[in-house]
Design a protein that fits this description.
Blueprint (H helix, E strand, L loop, with lengths): L7 H6 L12 E6 L3 H11 L3 E2 L2 E8 L2 H10 L5 E5 L7 H11 L7 E6 L7 H7 L4 E4 L5 H39 L4 H16 L4 E9 L6 E9 L18 H10 L3 E2 L4 E6 L5 E7 L6 H43 L8 H18 L9 H11 L11 H4 L7 H22 L7 H11 L20 H16 L10 H10 L7 H12 L12
Parallel strand pairs: 1-3, 1-4, 4-5, 5-6
Antiparallel strand pairs: 2-3, 7-8, 7-11, 9-10, 10-11
Helix pairs in contact: 3-4, 6-7, 6-9, 7-9, 10-11, 10-15, 10-17, 11-14, 13-14, 14-15, 15-16
Length: about 525
């Protein structure tokens, strides 16, 4: 796609004979027990077109039928309502029920009566929330037309105000949801969902991030999320060049502005960090000015959400790098442990997911906990930096004195990490790391160290890492042992269910392994 060329090539690719999308009709409800009134109304108004929209006329022959229809069809613009039907005040009762029970303040209500004396105009206008009162004898075709157009104008103004109010509320709610999302994939799906919510209808849509092509010169659309009939598109893959929206998305990115057409609407989003996004969707009818205006506002909020996610990702990567560096510092003194901390991280996350899926410890497996527990587990043995090499690297069995020195690493790690965690507000990888470092050698039955904690007094994160640390250590070579076979290592953990280890955590480990042993858990050739 050459940005120096004109846009003429785009016009050749747009279907020239595609029929225009029909605008939604104005909906008029006639509530009257006289069939002739319905017929006359259809004859007088059936061919009216106002602002490019035709009139759809619905019929009800009693107040109760009218109520049921209005309850099902909330987008009726005008009700031409007879007063006397199944009862002398059926129309008046329906008018009140529309406002009070259905809470419909938008629909315009025009009372029509053949017996004005039974429902005096002045009293009705004061006591009921209606918009006009007409005797059937005065409603000539011209006056009926005038009443219709006046009512539709009033309804359109109220709908615009209400749509702005509800749309802005939806944008605030949608923006709040977007700021809570922690990955680009999740955010992309959320944007498509919220676009549909703002417009009050489901859409076929796709969100693409623009990335350099293989030649590294021209940005191309990469699919991040799709919905509706666009769902089969492959995520993280190039949007197919034969896709009908491909050229329009490219043109939108070139022009750096939103594109609205009968075939597809495309929103252009540029985040402050330079990434460009396109949201393409196909609404069932052309968007109005209010909807377009709301989407323009929403684009600004989406861009801010992408910026927020980018900064969060950068901070998260910085934090991960720092944690891994600390763990590597402790691990570097014992080359035989290899990727132990990284395997502990993955297995800890997997067990936490199993516990949450089984609805275990719901008050503890919070979103924050799930985000940080794997990263925090990397720090479980960071206190070993204070353990002398003669003890840490000694092959074979330790003496009681050496064992006492070895056990000090739990408190050393906890102390260092807890002090650092005080600099961070709320729960973090450091605060969880401190709990893990100090508690992963505690036993569920209270016979562990350094404090002899028991059961739920041991932090959940530490109870998880207690199982993971032992299981992984058994599977791999250590200075003091050869690797155990998988079945023997798992049997060891299962035997200590309820004594050394939390039964729920052991069950979660087994549930995870029952679905197949992941490659990363076993060394090559083991």
């Amino acid at each position: 796609m050459d940005t120096t060329d004109s846009d003429d090539w785009l016009e050749d690719d747009v279907p020239q004979e595609a029929p225009a999308q029909a605008l939604k009709p104005w909906r008029l409800l006639v509530v009257d027990d006289e069939p002739d009134i319905h017929a006359v109304t259809r004859l007088a108004l059936g061919q009216v077109v106002f602002k490019g929209r035709r009139i759809e006329i619905l019929s009800a022959y009693s107040g109760e039928q009218g109520f049921e229809l209005l309850a099902r069809e909330p987008d009726i613009a005008l009700v031409l309502l007879d007063v006397v039907m199944e009862t002398e005040d059926a129309g008046l009762r329906l008018a009140r029920r529309i406002r009070d029970e259905l809470n419909n303040t938008l629909v315009r209500i025009v009372l029509r009566t053949g017996q004005p004396g039974q429902a005096p105009e002045q009293q009705v206008i004061v006591d009921y929330d209606i918009n006009d009162y007409k005797a059937k004898t005065e409603l000539t075709t011209q006056k009926l037309f005038t009443t219709l157009i006046t009512s539709l104008r009033g309804y359109e103004g109220l709908v615009t105000i209400d749509a702005n109010r509800r749309g802005l509320n939806r944008i605030l709610e949608a923006s709040s949801n977007l700021y809570q999302m922690s990955s680009l994939q999740e955010l992309a799906s959320g944007v498509l969902t919220q676009v549909g919510a703002i417009l009050s209808f489901g859409t076929d849509g796709v969100l693409c991030v623009m990335r350099k092509d293989t030649a590294g010169t021209q940005p191309v659309p990469i699919v991040m999320a799709s919905t509706g009939s666009a769902t089969p598109l492959v995520e993280h893959a190039l949007l197919p060049t034969e896709h009908p929206w491909y050229d329009i998305i490219g043109s939108t990115i070139q022009q750096r502005k939103n594109h609205f057409s009968e075939a597809v609407d495309v929103l252009f989003i540029e985040a402050a960090h330079g990434h460009q996004f396109a949201v393409a969707f196909s609404p069932p009818w052309p968007l109005g000015d209010v909807e377009r205006s709301l989407l323009n506002v929403f684009c600004d909020r989406i861009a801010a959400a992408f910026d927020n996610l980018h900064m969060f990702s950068q901070l998260r990567m910085t934090q991960e790098a720092t944690v891994v560096a600390l763990a590597d510092l402790a691990e570097s003194r014992d080359a035989t442990t290899g990727g132990h901390v990284r395997r502990v991280c993955k297995l800890t996350e997997a067990i936490a997911v199993e516990l949450r899926a089984a609805q275990k410890f719901p008050n503890e497996t919070t979103t924050t906990f799930m985000s940080y527990v794997g990263l925090a587990s990397i720090l479980h043995d960071v206190g070993k930096v204070g353990t002398p090499d003669a003890v840490l690297l000694k092959p074979g069995k330790h003496t009681p004195e050496e064992r006492q020195i070895m056990e000090q690493h739990a408190l050393v790690g906890e102390t260092v990490l807890a002090r650092a965690a005080q600099m961070v507000e709320g729960e973090s990888s450091l605060s969880l790391g401190a709990a893990i470092a100090g508690g992963h050698h505690e036993h569920f039955d209270g016979r562990g160290y350094p404090r002899g904690l028991k059961g739920s007094a041991i932090p959940l994160a530490a109870r998880i890492v207690a199982v993971v640390d032992v299981f992984d250590a058994l599977l791999h070579s250590r200075p003091y042992k050869e690797p155990w076979p998988f079945d023997q290592a798992l049997a060891y953990v299962l035997e200590r269910r309820g004594t050394q280890f939390d039964p729920d955590v052991v069950d979660a480990l087994k549930a995870f392994l029952d679905r197949g042993m992941p490659d990363w858990l076993v060394d090559e050739g083991h």
